[in-house]
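During the first year of the project, the team set up a workflow for recording each protein of interest as an amino acid sequence followed immediately by a discrete structure-token representation. This format lets reviewers and collaborators read both layers of information side by side without switching files. As required by the reporting guidelines, we include two representative entries from the current panel. The first entry is reproduced here exactly as it appears in our internal archive.
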Amino acid sequence: MRIVPSPYAAGLARTPVARHDTVVAGVPAAWWEYGEPGDGPTLLLVHGFRGDHHGLEPVVSFLPGVHVIAPDLPGFGASRALAGEHSIDGYSAWLRAFAAALGLRSDVVVIGHSFGTIVAAKALADSLPAARAILINPIAAPALAGPNALGTRLSSLYFGVGAALPERIGNALLQSRVITRGAGAFLAKTKDPALRAWIHNQHDRFFSAYAEKRVVTEAFTASVTHDVTEWADRLTLPVHLIAAEHDDITTLDDVRRLHALLPDATMAVIPAVGHLIHYETPRAAAEQIAAVTGVSVA
């Protein structure tokens, strides 16, 4: 498969990166470390559905000198699948075990994107020690009630069929580039053809990097049956919401309602972008992270 050069490669090259492999709760897990521990906070990144650690690298590219930990969630990227179900409870337990295995301190800042905001919120509600949470493109309402409810129902049918088929045939359906390209084209708002080409290439390269069929079908179910509001009253730490003006998954009104439910929350809206803040406006996301954590932006 051809590789489209990243428009953020030069920024990322400023930061040393190392892959690590750790057994977490009996599951081999791969994680990436950017930068080194210093005077500032460590950022723990939680990627979105069907992605892996690559997804938030554009944001990291604007945070040189910041210590970042970015795991591949179980069953995605280079991490092995859980023995049990890939549910929100399963991912929450794993993320808490991951932080404990690495000895992350309670001053860590947890940053989630999309599905990662649900995983992060549940883990934090389940007592993951952290100083602050930052939720990018937060899932602030049930997917079946959101602005793309019809699309969610069609996706549910698609994943349901994929789950019912034998492994090889089901994977062929679930890994269809036609489907992933269509989803990327729907979510992307940029008019820049070079940036759109890179986004599509990212989806082509990484959206099918899951361990087995049950991982992606179980994680899909988890992604559409939960949202951050379920645990809002238990998120007593400071939470910063980074919303998008044109998000097709969660409306601004939904994010504002989530903001009102959280005990200690702030909110920012990035204009002229949708659900792909991490791809299309990563510098703006990095600036928001810097604004609430005190780290520097390149």
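The second entry, processed by the same pipeline in the following quarter, appears below.
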Amino acid sequence: MAVTTSRPRTRPGSGPGPRTTVPVRLIGPWQNALEGAAAALCGVAAMAAVSGLALVLLGAGSFGSLWSLTMTSTAMAVGGSVSAGPDASGNTGSTGGLASLFGGGGGLSPSMSGAAGVVPLGVTLTGAVVLWVAFSRRLRQGRQRRFTAGELAVRAAGAGAAALVTLMIVAGLAHGSADLPASAMTGGAGGGSAQGFGGGSGGLAGLFGGGGAAARPAMAYHVSAMSAGFGGLLWAAVVLGTGCLVSRRARLPLGGALDGLRSGWGRGLSPVVRTVLALAAVPPVALVFVGAMAGGRAATAAGAALLLAPNAVAVFLTLGVGSSWTAAVHPVRSEGGGNPLAALMGGMGGTAGTGGMGGGRQPDRTEHLRSLSAGGRPLWLVALAVTGLILLACAYRAARTTHPGHKRPLLPYRGPLSGHLGMAERFAVVTAVVLGVAAWSAGASGHFGVSMFGSEMGGMRAELSGSVLWTVVLGLFVGGAAGFAGSLLAAARRDRALR
């Protein structure tokens, strides 16, 4: 229930004369909670809209229900795990091969299963920005009154509860069936990989009936509601906490140690967060306009960028501080321990269309990203130069906006360089935390397998992994160096302006 009261205010320069009253609108706890919940709903709606746009550009509607795939992408954006298995309708798209040999049903035909763990950070960050803008709208209109700590806590609780419930509902809607791409069935993409994965019978089509593109089995997929709900709650907490630290216009009643945390650390965190958001937003936005105009492969690239461009930015920035990233593909070979048929097919070297899946012809493929080259130069060197310049600019901005009283170092040193050392300490921690979270979020993994008689006959595992611990450690060193250099530059410019 909203209550209107009055607060006396003296006109400037009027002395002890008559006072005017300014109406103050007090907001009840339920309205605060509902406004926080509405902010979370706006964030989830924005994520669903971006997911749907990206999937339309990718042409995902030809593989399954666009609505279900949109819900799946939205749930994955907060860490929801996806699992896939045989289509419940029994549609395997099989017309021959092993499927017809064993009757095409009753659990005897080959069945596919899979799982994917990847966070489309383009969707995640879009929802985060919309969530904070909607949440802080009334906080930025704080000229008439300042919110209390209790009111802010109620608004945050409403946003967290709404994110938890809504994303669990989204995960419940994220189920359906999707057809495998024709390239996976015919081996048309990848050239040599088709021979390894499907032998000489044209990819998976040989295993599921040899029907080529016409034999496209369907896989049923679903998202874990628990992981999506917990991820949504964590997402809302991180967004609101970060927003409270870096916001410049919102009047926040943190008080005490929290207010000191915002004043001492928020100035260093703000330029890093804003720069990362800008780097993550510019490429996909530009590509979306180009893809919408050109269509074809440009539209596909735009859809992929809309989902995963921030993931690439995170990998690039963490490579710049010296972290190692590895992209690997591991064929899963059946040992045939409890499955005589798998052992027989493995010994036959891929008979009956199992090809490399049973015999394990494909070797493991591992690529260290830092060993790649860009423009004739090592990728890690390019990433180091770009990341160093970005961090130096952020540290310079942080040093200029941080009050000198908040630059005192944590170490017991009070010499002439104490302010620069304090800035280096704070910026090192900020850099390590931001890049550590980026490395943790950008990792991806997936698994695809074919089973028969309850035993996996073969499959493929793929992963993109980086060392979060090394990213944090190296981020401390690089961030400290950038913070020290940025503080020196800010001091030099200030001295020059005073002359």
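For the second entry, the following points were noted during internal review. The two ends are 58 Å apart (CA to CA). Residues 256-294 form the longest helix (39 residues). Both points are flagged for discussion at the upcoming steering committee meeting.
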